[in-house]
Description:
By secondary structure, the chain is α/β, with parallel strands linked by helices. It is built from 6 helices and 12 strands. 27% of the residues lie in helices and 29% in strands.
Amino acid sequence: MAITFYDRQIKRVCIIDDDDSSRNVLKYTVEDSDLEALPQNEGISDINFFLSSIKNSDAIVSDHHLRKKNYFPADGAVVCSHCYDLLIPSILVTKWEQADVHEIRKLRPKIPVIINPEDFNPDSLIHSLEICINEFKGVMIPQRKTWRTLVRIDDLDELHFYVIIPSWNPNEVISIAKKELDNSVAQSLRQGQRVHANVNIEAEQPYELFFQNWEI
């Protein structure tokens, strides 16, 4: 069975996970949504080859950590961001850990949906696919729309900046790893500095925030 969103039909969903049991759980959820599950059971050595073949699928569901057992040469966030450029709906299914936030945030503008495995079910799958397709048409959910806003550099250390976004929450400090930023931006920021960036200030959780177009 296929599901149609506007002019897009979703029938075949590729499933990417380096753990056999987790991949099967994702497969069953896709099948429970009356969609055809295409699990990627074999390891992939070349991401470009994979991306050229993935066009046979209508959507992607991927775990983030894929490098175990030489299963995949890149993390799931990278795969999803490439799929975004190809206009292929992609859903990243992963548990949030602080290290993952720092790895994913720079790519987050091209990852419309991230779901905790415990929340992944047929309803959330269908809703997530709709979010992706709407975004391809230029319609973003409020939590992902960015606005030019003030960012205050509250503190810093060797690896991180600690910032406050008054228009989001003036009382919460957000940690940004220096590696998330372009080198020119990271070298320019100073403690106590006030700068502007485009931020999705309607995000509900701090790990959902992302930053674009820094103005130093």
